[in-house]
Amino acid sequence: MTYKIHTAPIWDAFKLTDVCPICELRRATEERLLGQYLNESVMEPDARVRVNRQGFCGSHSQKMLAGGNICGFALQLQTRNRHIRESLKLIEGAKRAQKEASRLQDEATSCIICAETEQIMARYYQTIALMFKNEKTFPELARDAACLCVNDYSRLLAHSAHAGSRADDYRKTLYLVITRSLSQSDADLAAFIDRFDYQKKDASVMTPEQKAAPVSAVRKLTRL
Ligand SMILES: [Zn+2]
Ligand SMILES: [Zn+2]
């Protein structure tokens, strides 16, 4: 059986003790792609065509601006800018205006890094399900995962059929991890909120997890 992506980063991510392992895989994937689009892809004709077509979203543009190769990014912005400029035409009529507005909304939000990250993440979601079925010690590691976010829980669930005969076991494990993760947030948020209660202000010192409870809850509840 062959996996669609290397499994070593998956093993490593599931061993982390304080973050959602899938968010960590996504972070590392985005970082690698940002490095690629800031460096070798700048002069690669195929990559330039893809960048012209899709551009970069607001969040990834900010990261490209801060990425240490502003000239390389400016070159890509120039060709993307020309691509958009050349696609514009004077519009007559309300129906055509609506259609053009919708096309430009897609242009303004499309992103080569978001699109390629999603493709790679889909391979991770499939591979994790396959590993649950095939790797002897992986189910235990998955069950003990420190954390899981709602977005990744939903995506893992959507790909859970790849665990084949063990799919229901896999879904049960995912359910255990997400409920434990959200219960932990509930407890940490309760401790955090207590600090604002003047009657409890002198209560015991907060742990680092309790101090970070709002930030951690945002990461678990929202797709950043
Ligand atoms: Zn996550
Ligand atoms: Zn993006």
Mean pLDDT rating? 93
- Low-pLDDT runs of 5+ residues are none
Largest sheet: none
Question: What form results from the Cα inertia axes?
Answer: globular
Q: In percent, how much strand structure appears in the residues? A: under 5%
Bound molecules: zinc ion
Can you count the beta strands?
0
The CA-CA distance between the termini, in Å, is 34 Å
Question: Helix and strand string, N-terminal first?
Answer: HHHHHHHHHHHH
Give the number of domains. 1
- Rounded radius of gyration (Å): 22 Å
- Structural category is mainly alpha
User: What is the helix fraction of residues, given as a range?
Assistant: over 70%
| Distinct helical segment count | 12
Short account of what is shown:
It is built from twelve helices and no strands.
Question: Any overview of this molecule?
Answer:
It is a single chain. This protein is globular. It has twelve helices and no strands. It starts with 7 loop residues before the first helix and ends with a helix. The longest helix has 28 residues, at 167-194. With 224 residues, it is mainly α. It has one domain. Bound molecules: zinc ion (2 copies). One zinc ion (ZN) binds next to helix 2 and helix 9.
Write the layout of secondary structure elements.
Elements: H1 8-15, H2 21-38, H3 45-54, H4 58-65, H5 70-87, H6 94-109, H7 112-134, H8 138-143, H9 150-158, H10 167-194, H11 208-211, H12 213-221
Bound molecules: zinc ion (2 copies).
Please give a handful of descriptors for the protein shown:
single chain, 224 residues, mainly alpha, 70% helix, binds zinc ion
